């Protein structure tokens, strides 16, 4: 059983805030990953011998500090949007505090607390409205030895290992009897993780050469009638430069990628937008994977789409974004909330989610049978969406994002790290195309081969392998989530068979 001294409320509050800041410091762009491990250890210790409202309350305060540090960038949509999101996301940390306060009463707490962390991460990625799994522990591991586990146990397993290392170190501090064994176990976890990066990648048989177009936009036009046209005009202009550079440098392109919202008007239905796309494909001489806003099947709705546009055949295979952002892309309970909260009119037409997985079967001049997987913006935070690409046979992954809203904040840095994590986890090269942020070519080891600068028009050329392997992480990680949930519930049940400790 874990114990700790009793502190005055002010000291406990300061410790809770410090814990939240330590947890957040491991996320991009700070990237101080040892701080996150220390934060998990301090959080676990802080919850010891607390009950009920005290554990929930101090855990909630930890969450407020963590989320304020990491996701306050959403305030660009409005201060109250950030306040609401941070307040809600912190509830999960309150729940975790409540659960941990009971689990630390059991002898196996160093192994049970990490399971609770994973279980709460799983819940936060599902509830409500599909969840928002943005601050998972695994996202802090991209530049430390535990990243080697990503291709084997996935995000779920790596989050468990981060929390396990933290709890083992805490155990070593509070118990002399297990100190040596705990330290040895921590060293072993880190060493094995590093060594796993030496395992050879599956040998590819073919490659594709791609141009990632970053059009850039005039941010002052956002919200004006000219914005939608200027975005596509910029995409056309940069495609002209890309085509010229490709021919000059001898790049034999298979296709070009435009980012999310490169056409802010449906390019299939709108004649002027369609003309711009067709001119672009004609100049490029190869298909363009167009990020577009399209009209939905229901009246006054829209979809965020990726459309494979061939220079001769025109629009072909497409994918519609599945993971939509509530109050950003659609309004839950629209009829009830809109009269009460007129500010929600800024959301515009409701987006409707796509139903298929993000794998499009297409052909290019040199690759007649090509399976391209795509994730659109925030989708890369959701495990099922990423894993479905590999299950569906994707040979390379595209990540298309409209980053204009969040340019200059922490969000683009965090999204770039997520792309790197997904590359390692899936064993695929990830080609990240953004409107005006950090477009990047990322190899299957999660390394950035090349990237653009924010708020600049640019093009990246990349020849990347087509891969067919299915990493163990894709098969195992979903089961680990359920195992963590089940283990946590059983362990909680056991705590209610023990005599409760005094209320504090």
From TrEMBL:
It is a multi-pass membrane protein. One of its GO terms (biological process) is lipoprotein biosynthetic process. Keywords: Acyltransferase, Cell membrane, Lipoprotein, Membrane, Transferase, Transmembrane, Transmembrane helix. Gene3D superfamilies: Carbon-nitrogen hydrolase (3.60.110.10). It comes from Tessaracoccus flavescens. It is found in: Cell membrane. Catalyzes the phospholipid dependent N-acylation of the N-terminal cysteine of apolipoprotein, the last step in lipoprotein maturation. The gene is lnt. PROSITE patterns: CN_HYDROLASE. Its EC number is 2.3.1.269. PANTHER family: APOLIPOPROTEIN N-ACYLTRANSFERASE. SUPFAM superfamilies: Carbon-nitrogen hydrolase (SSF56317). This is Apolipoprotein N-acyltransferase. HAMAP family: Lnt (MF_01148).
